[in-house]
Amino acid sequence: MRIEGKEYRTIWYEENVVKIIDQTKLPHRFIIKELKTVKDAINAIKVMEVRGAPLIGGTAAYGMALAVKENNSPEFIKKSSEELIQSRPTAINLKWAVDRMMKKLSGINSDQILSIALNEAKEICDEDEKFCEKIGINGLKIIEEIYNKKKDTVNILTHCNAGWLATINWGTATSPIYHAHKKGIPVHVWVDETRPRNQGANLTSYELNEEEIPNTIIADNTGGILMQRGEVDMCIVGTDRTLSNGDVCNKIGTYLKALAAYDNNVPFYVALPSSTIDWDIKDAKDIPIEERSSEELSHIEGIDENNKIKKVLIYPNKSKAMNLAFDVTPAKYVTGLITEKGISEASSDGLKKLFN
Ligand code: MRU
Questions:
Q1: Which CATH superfamily is domain 2-127 in?
Q2: Exposed/middle/buried for 21, CB within 10 Å: 0-12, 13-18, 19+?
Q3: Looking at 240, 247, 278, 327, which residue is catalytic?
Q4: Number of H helices and number of E strands within the chain?
Q5: Domain map (residue ranges) of the chain
Q6: What is the chain's mean pLDDT, rounded?
Q7: Which one of 161, 241, 250, 287 would you pick to mutate in the ligand 1 pocket, going by the greatest count of ligand atoms within 8 A of its CB?
């Protein structure tokens, strides 16, 4: 997608290094960063220079290739794979990508190993781009249907950033929106700010602006009243891990939005590539929920009048704060799962029909 009119993907390999867009600096600075070692890739995931389940997976895949480049002994590759998997706990795409790389590399001890690793990492990223595009084509039908009935702008609410910046390209939740916009359907997006890291305000609104899609940032607590007033036609969110029974783990606050949507008969869709499905965990209580530093709540970053980035404390300095990063929305509140293979009911039967 575009930034200042130029097409980008979120991660690519060029001049023997991996390049990423540093998302901790957006929307105020656009900085391309180089990752040269597997440690760089681990750090980029940990500090969220890259984030969003599919992009975390893509970065982990390239991280494995960087490990092979540094030292192609089986011991180093194995240790790197374990360190990568531990870099963030909730998004299943991370483990999925590392496992796929390990499978590809197992038993290879020729000088071809680096090019095999780089090709597989690129393949993982290319596949994600293709799947996200298909999610858009499938999700477009839902937006079209609403538009054909309403004959007016379709208002879509989204939470966090499940846009192209969270994937390799297109995004998951945003892909149907980008496809609708390209087809000339008038859309307007309610962008949840998404405290504490403000991925909605800093990233979703930023990328929609770059693609000239009308959007309005709202405080996270505003969605409910907008739904009661009939100002939300549908919700689309992404997910970090969806269980085979259709339960959806996503950015903290998604659950409350799903409850409000259910109470107001607003369709609540979740968009995801199949790499985000966890076929193993059966009970949502077993999903590892990341708890991040309380500083993400107590401090806020922005630019001052001299265009300098500043971080300031906004809480009483004696207060404690707690920062859970994800929650789980039970399948019964999810209208449907928009995947690369089509739209499924959020249930074991629905997912089995599409993926078996
Ligand atoms: O903590 P983040 O920014 O990595 O969380 C991202 C989300 O929760 C996204 O909604 C999710 O990964 C889906 S991305 C297509």
A1: translation initiation factor eif-2b, domain 1 (1.20.120.420)
A2: buried
A3: 240
A4: 12, 18
A5: 2-127, 135-355
A6: 97
A7: 161
Pull the structure tokens for residue 221. Answer: 């607590």
Determine the average pLDDT of the residues in 77-94: 98
What's the full length of the chain, in residues? 356
Ligand 1 pocket mutation, candidates 51, 135, 159, criterion most atoms within 8 A of CB: 51
What's the gap in Å between 265 CA and the centre of ligand 1? 25
Class assignment of domain 135-355?
A: alpha beta
Cβ partners under 8 Å of residue 260, min gap 6 = 223, 224, 227, 266
Q: Is 135 in the pocket of ligand 1 (CB under 6 A)?
A: no
Higher pLDDT, 257 or 5: 257
92-118 per-position pLDDT tens digit = 999 999 999 999 999 998 889 999 999
Any catalytic annotation for residue 240? yes
Q: Give tens-digit pLDDT for 182-205.
A: 999 999 999 999 999 999 999 999
